[in-house]
Amino acid sequence: SRLKGKRKIERSHSKIVLQHKKNLLGETIYKGHPSWVLMLNIQTGIRNQVGKSLQTTQFTTTPRKTTAALKDHRPSQKFSFSGIPPGPEEFHRASDFFASPNAQDFPTAGSSFTIPHTTNPFKFKDYCPHAFRYLRHRFGIDPADYMVSVCNTQKDGSNALREMATPGKSGSLSFYSHDMRFILKTIPKREAKLMRKLLPDYVEHISKNENTLLPRFFGLHRVKPLKGRQVRFVVMGNVFATRRKLHERYDLKGSTFGRRVSPAELQKENITFKDLDFRERRGHLFLGAAARGPLIEQLRRDATFLAKLGVMDYSLLVGVHHENQEDEDFSPPPSGPGSPIANIVTTTVTTTTTATTTASSTTYATTQVETTSSTPVTATEPFHSIFQVSDGGMLGIDEAGNATGEMYYLGVIDILMLYTLRKRVEHTYKVVRYNSKPEEVSSIAPVDYAARFMNFMTDIIV
User: Fold this and answer.
1) What is the torsion angle, in degrees rounded to the nearest 10, for the CA atoms of residue 169, residue 172, residue 177 and residue 179?
2) Region at 295 (left for phi over 0; alpha for psi -120 to 50; beta for the rest)
3) Which end of the chain is less crowded, N or C, counting CB atoms within 10 A of the terminal residue's CB?
4) What are the tens digits of pLDDT across the range 71-121?
């Protein structure tokens, strides 16, 4: 039966995802699932496009006058890079760095450009491959590991993606990699166009702010079956990719109108609470003075950047782990000299029944949030910002400098919404219809949104 098949798949790869099983979301896509073919097409397309970069020791680019060659997959100019993809400054024109080849046909039997697969023919478009390859490198994403996480579904259904409907009105779907490291989210055409438009500014911001809390984007693609509708999706990092169980989740915008979960939502598993719920349930995030300053400064830089682009309606996603509720089978991540964490922060952990520490036991290596270097970081491990030094999160520290027994996982999400005419009308309607104060409604001008967002963050982070 369908249920029996799902359980078999879950058991077959339970050992592989042990470190992330506490935070699994959605349902595994099993053979016969409505999204099974879509998943296989997505994985085939990504495997083919990303795999090309592993087949040569040279990276290719094409000046504007030969853009047609790029679209025909015949780049006319090459240069060596010793494993480090070139940045935009190394291209003849910056626009070439963000160029996109034509959609690629994927016949079932394969071709000289594509690998054979088991589904019907489809088309796959890889947007801005140079830019996203550069971003994956900056974030320390190894191409082989990336494909193993996202594209490693076996014939028996093991290692399949997990599907979850996105909360909200968009109707989007989110697919999680089997190890919960990556999210593949379907997006409408307008958001895909906006992302390509904002990508040059995003790359520049990432290059200057290695500790940014903005989403980590790894790819933008489009897949179209032979007789089906096209689906656009973005690949990004999962803020909650941790081995620790998350006991609380919050989506915080800084607004109050409609920012409370409904009674129906309270009955669901893995509830994501909102601003008013946060005020009532906890009120603050205790991080200590050493962490608060750099975090507030980076959030301010990110919010200012988004306001400059005309973006609003984003949120700070917060996950909270309580150490006194830790499962017995948790094993902390490796650490020590040479580890990614050790290179960024020095952490002293004392194992006692009360698990106490002081603020001085966690020393941030730098308070310089911005870096002007455009040279990618050479890394074989995922890059950890100074806000991800403790298994991807931050230790809770109270005002007295003692550990609170909590860990926080933070990241800004949903940055692909402009303050359009529709949002202006929505703002006016809610103010008039519900007699709300203009500043309480979520949809406000980007500069005002950023100011309200930062006022809220400055108030709750202590």
Assistant:
1) 0
2) alpha
3) N
4) 443 333 343 344 678 888 888 888 899 999 999 999 999 999 999 999 999
State the CB neighbour count (10 A cutoff) for residue 222. Answer: 18
pTM comes to 0.78
- Which segment of 252-256, 379-383, 408-412 scores lowest on mean pLDDT? 379-383
More confident residue, 334 or 153: 153
Hey, what long-range contacts does 358-364 have (CB within 8 A, 24 or more apart)? Answer: 358/401, 358/402, 358/403, 359/288, 359/289, 359/290, 359/397, 359/401, 360/401, 362/288, 362/290, 362/291, 362/389, 362/390, 362/395, 362/397, 363/290, 364/290, 364/291, 364/294
Cα separation, 247 vs 326, whole angstroms: 10
Q: Tell which residue, 164, 430, 126, has the closest CA to residue 272.
A: 164
In this structure, which amino acid lies at residue 177?
S
b/e for 249-282, b at 16 or more Cβ within 10 A? Answer: bbbbbbbbbebebeeeeeeeeeebbbbebbbeeb
Gap between the Cα atoms of 126 and 106, Å rounded: 13
Amino acid at 263: P
Token reading at 445: 């001008």
**How far is it, in rounded angstroms, from Cα 236 to Cα 176?**
10
User: Using an 8 Å Cβ cutoff, are 333 and 407 in contact?
Assistant: no
